User: Fold this.
Amino acid sequence: MNDFDQIKKKDGDTANVSNHLKKMAETQPYKRAVVYPAGWDEKGRIAYTHLTFLQLDQESDHLAHGLENAGITRGIRTVLMVRPSLEFFALTFALFKTGAVPVVVDPGMGTDRMLTCLKQSRAEAFIGIPLAHAMRKIYPRYFRTVKTWITVGRRWFWGGFTLDHIRQTLWEPYPVAPTRPDETAAILFTTGSTGPAKGVIYTHGMFESQIKHIRSCFEIGEDEVDLPTFPLFALFDPALGMTAVIPDMDPTKPALVDPEKITEAIANQGVTNMFASPALLNRVGTYGKEMGIRLPSLRRVISAGAPVSAANIERFSEMLSETAEIHTPYGATEAMPVTSFGSREILQGTRKFTDQGYGMCVGRPLEGLDVRIIKITDTPVEEWSDSLEVPRGDIGEITVKGDIVSSEYFESPEDNALSKITDGDGIRHRMGDLGWMDSKGRIWFCGRKNHRVITESGTLFTIPCEAIFNTHEAVFRSALVGVGEPPNQKPVICIELVKDGRKVDKDEVKQELLNLAARHPITEEIKTVMFHKGFPTDIRHNSKIFREKLALWAK
Assistant:
């Protein structure tokens, strides 16, 4: 019986992710839970501070009592705008313990989008750093529903509490709220990289299932040390019993990370597990190859957020031991992880097919998840029917049903209609991604549904077409866009060249790319090549290409 099953048995019909932290505080009280780079000594060496699992559990108890006294209790939607830190972890688990509902918005998505998300959440409480409070004073109309304000740090000209003021001084265990598995645990907003950001409702049962699947899929051990370069992923670490080492970086700009700081943290802290976006993987891998760096402590790297090229994987793998592997799980905020895949199978098996335009293989569905490929449509599908499925091998929309799937968006009936299908006693989520399933049960990702290009002669899919152009040595990445309206769109391939200091004859490269396209049936219709100095990408991972913006630019 695993930890998840023990907690279910102990708590009956209740579920609360903070129970995992309490269990870790009992079984490994003196293991470091969170490690934070606090500064530098006189020799320029990084100085770290930390909380053990026992300390983190007790600190979140201190704060949970204070939150309750301030009026933040079960069901209270609470905006949390705190940078990755010891306080971030303690506050998050304190909120879970009270049964309050953290509302998490990515600050890197831009002020306008962020404010829209905060207004949509209709939060009743707000916990943030001084900069976040200054923003809410500048834009007060977006926060009219908020009644309780807490500043993490120095309070200036605004009212409300400070974290130091509400924190209960004397420690006493906090009785965890007996939340139900189907009760809302958090609202996590998508980045809105392919449309308006949506608030995904996470239940306590969904969190429990994700912890179970992540531990099983990636074989997380008891002695793990994680470097989570994506803050939301870091929240799983205490529940999984992993030490979380907060990296010295701007989490909203992973593509601009200082590689030396990342490799230093891995070597200094004996990191065994790292989550990295493809952009960060590329930057650190390029640096590591140039400097001849080796990272023997790493057992696995998990890279997600956008397709990860085989070249990117191969380059980073050179820093790892022979037993280590890079995993590329597939999923979304609404359902994560859905499938997973390892670098050995990618580099030794599927890579050559990706380069030929088959799409990008993202692996097999995790145990217990039901993944089906359905006919492509932009209209709602109310109820599941087997007639929706396409024959195996055909491209369609990827759908998933299972315990890690969010059943609804927060107060967004239109988005629910477009993304959710009633399937028996559960909900099937439409991923908005296109792909196909091979004879081995593996899923091949072919791009976003709303990025497909519909021409007079047929439909072109982004990932398969782009892979053909990406094989050219001068191409860093490419993006297929459609100019005009379907079904009469003109396909245009946008090219971002490799930035290595070499001079490139663009006319010569253009002709070579057109010749390359003409040799493949899926790209022979593409007659227009345009060079772009640097693709616009998503804020969260700096890896998803904003093809909508490129389409306007190409037009």
Observations:
- The longest strand covers residues 426-437.
- Confidence is low (pLDDT under 50) at residues 1-11.
- The first helix runs from residue 3 to 11.
